Amino acid sequence: MLKYDVIIIGWGKAGKTLAKTFSADGKTVAVIERDEKMAGGTCINVACIPTKTLSVDSVKGTDYVDAFERRNLVVKKLNETNYQNLATEETIDIYFGEASFKNDRELIVRAGEERFSLKGALVFINTGSESRIPNIRGIMESKHVYDSTQLQELPFLPKRLGIIGAGNIGLEFASIYSGFGSKVTLIETGAEILKHEEPEIRIAVQEELVQQGIEVLTETAVSSIQDVTNDGVKVITKAGDTFNFDAILIATGRKPAIESLRLWNTAIKLNESGGIWTNDYLRTTVDHVFALGDVRGEEQFTYTSLDDARIIDSYLYGNQDYNLKSRQNLPYSIFINPPFARVGMTEAEAVAANLDIRTNILPVAKMPRAHVTGDLRGVFKAVIAKHSNQILGASLFGAQAHEIINIVKLAKDYNLPASVLHNQVFTHPTMAENLNDLFK
Ligand SMILES: Cc1cc2nc3c(=O)[nH]c(=O)nc-3n(C[C@H](O)[C@H](O)[C@H](O)COP(=O)(O)OP(=O)(O)OC[C@H]3O[C@@H](n4cnc5c(N)ncnc54)[C@H](O)[C@@H]3O)c2cc1C
Ligand SMILES: NC(=O)c1ccc[n+]([C@@H]2O[C@H](COP(=O)([O-])OP(=O)(O)OC[C@H]3O[C@@H](n4cnc5c(N)ncnc54)[C@H](O)[C@@H]3O)[C@@H](O)[C@H]2O)c1
């Protein structure tokens, strides 16, 4: 039996950050990762970084084969850096194998034929999430159905790409693959895409996708998938329509990666989303075990996983003043072309909360920088409290939205009134300076 001060299951963002903190404190740390290719975790190997690398190249008009090569080089470099970052620490041991719980105290690691057990004074579960595959007839048998990891690892560009699910991943991949020249069809069961977003933005995004040649099918449910000899794969909808593709991407959400952990051997409980339940300090129902990142079944972002590491840091090394309740104003971006980003409330949410509000809408075509770059696409919208002038929310669709949203988030976190952004001195001509007008 191997014994450690700290065991981290899964090489996620929170875990790899904490491994360094614990090691600097002289603690012995075991990091257990089931996939040898995943040093550094999901984000750098198969998610944020490779997809955004492809996205940048698709906008530039790079040939897919060259973009694919650059994607692989970027991943290789970050993977190696991440591996070395932990491997060079004297008190960190890395094990490539799948970890599961034998009981609350003991873990078993399976690496090929090999098995060994470990005990940790503290255990951190950071196993991330995995694609949720819908129950569609023929989906498992088809040779042309991929999840986001498998599709981005295809060395060739599918000419006709069907994407099931128009959420975060579906929209990003639609933009990327259409940019490279695939004929993309988005198939979404919901009545509209981005249904929780501002209507002005939702409409502008949909128009832009269509303008780019992406077909958007809403209120469309797939009833079966069938491979066709010499012609890819056929999708049949519940309404009886048939579509032919060379590849299908499943982008219908991601579920917490808990199956391999054998939690039924422990007193660790799950929450309503099927993730691991924790208290506000990320402690599970077993005292010495904590859960971090996607595996908690809540927000699924690299930066929330990193923020989970901050909570643990504050809990173990600080004055315990930071926890899930203190986390505020989570921004998010969808990396379509141009990008969309949001923080805080939409107009509808503010009205539903009985707030007295005003809104400002600013088309990108009215922004000086947009004329400099020649990219007039998009619209920004702000929701502001009428009397207090408090910033309630901002939804930005346009170039640099993913960067600018962080300024609004900071202002909102510090409860700055809209007048601060309205009167702020920003460099010119930039996209950020338009916050002056947006928060008028
Ligand atoms: C295509 C795509 C694009 C995305 N783009 C963005 C983006 O642009 N920005 C953003 O913020 N977020 C993005 N996300 C979400 C982001 O990738 C995740 O929220 C984040 O990586 C989750 O990190 P984590 O710390 O929970 O764990 P992960 O980084 O997911 O790490 C979990 C690790 O645990 C391992 N593991 C699982 N089970 C076991 C076990 N039993 N034993 C040992 N190891 C195990 C897995 O192999 C994995 O390496 C994207 C996701 C996808 C799929
Ligand atoms: N830029 C980013 O930060 C980023 C990028 C990618 C992924 N992510 C994270 O990954 C998570 C998972 O992304 P996702 O896009 O898989 O999930 P999602 O929840 O964002 O979207 C899933 C979509 O699939 C639709 N859907 C579900 N079942 C369907 C079916 N059978 N047929 C057709 N449509 C169906 C849903 O209505 C929804 O619109 C996101 O929630 C996000 O947190 C973040």
Automatic annotation (TrEMBL):
Keyword Acetylation belongs to the record: no
Residue ranges of every copy of the FAD/NAD(P)-binding domain listed in the record: 4-304
Positions annotated as active site in the UniProt record: 428 (proton acceptor)
S-S bonds: 43-48
Annotated GO MF terms: flavin adenine dinucleotide binding; NAD(P)H dehydrogenase (quinone) activity
Superkingdom of origin organism: Bacteria
Entry note: cofactor: Binds 1 FAD per subunit.
Ranges for domain Pyridine nucleotide-disulphide oxidoreductase dimerisation: 331-437
Keyword annotations: FAD, Flavoprotein, NAD, Nucleotide-binding, Oxidoreductase
UniProt cofactor(s): FAD
Residues annotated to bind NAD(+): 165-172, 188, 253
Residues involved in FAD binding: 52, 127-129, 294
Family as reported in the entry's similarity comment: Belongs to the class-I pyridine nucleotide-disulfide oxidoreductase family.
NCBIfam families for the chain: PRK07251.1 (NF005572)
Name this polypeptide is given: FAD-containing oxidoreductase
